């Protein structure tokens, strides 16, 4: 039992160190990107025509999809790391990974459909 406790402490310590390094690496960029996302979110609500709405939805959907994918992958990775060989936990983590990839694929497909509609209708000014 003491070895298992030491392993768990080391795992928690390494996860905290990794999270700390990620925060240090991406903290300045995250603040700037969060400001950009808030501007995009406000722009969706103030769209005056269809072209602006399509532009704003496309520019907002991709970052939200990426953030969701990263969050779900980290969550699934944590569940898998702490499963200790439990097949139910490993299956749960795999299910989260598959669902995250399917969701991100659907976001990409939705953006592709919007761009296809734009190309068919020849809407001026749509810039993804």
TrEMBL record:
InterPro entries: T4SS_pilin. It comes from the Bacteria. Keywords: Membrane, Transmembrane, Transmembrane helix. The keyword Transmembrane applies. The chain crosses the membrane at residues 58-81, 93-117. Pfam families: T4SS_pilin (PF18895). This is Uncharacterized protein. It comes from Candidatus Dojkabacteria bacterium. The lineage of its organism: Bacteria, Candidatus Dojkabacteria.
């Amino acid at each position: 039992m003491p070895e298992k406790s030491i392993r768990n402490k080391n795992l928690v310590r390494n996860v905290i160190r990794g999270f700390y390094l990620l925060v240090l690496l991406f903290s300045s960029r995250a603040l700037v990107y969060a400001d950009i996302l808030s501007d995009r979110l406000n722009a969706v609500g103030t769209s005056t025509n269809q072209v602006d709405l399509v532009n704003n939805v496309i520019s907002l959907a991709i970052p939200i999809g990426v953030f969701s994918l990263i969050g779900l992958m980290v969550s699934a990775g944590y569940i898998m790391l702490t499963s200790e060989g439990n097949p139910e936990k490993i299956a749960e983590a795999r299910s989260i990974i598959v669902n995250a990839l399917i969701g991100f694929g659907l976001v990409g497909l939705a953006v592709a459909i919007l761009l296809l509609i734009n190309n068919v209708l020849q809407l001026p000014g749509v810039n993804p």
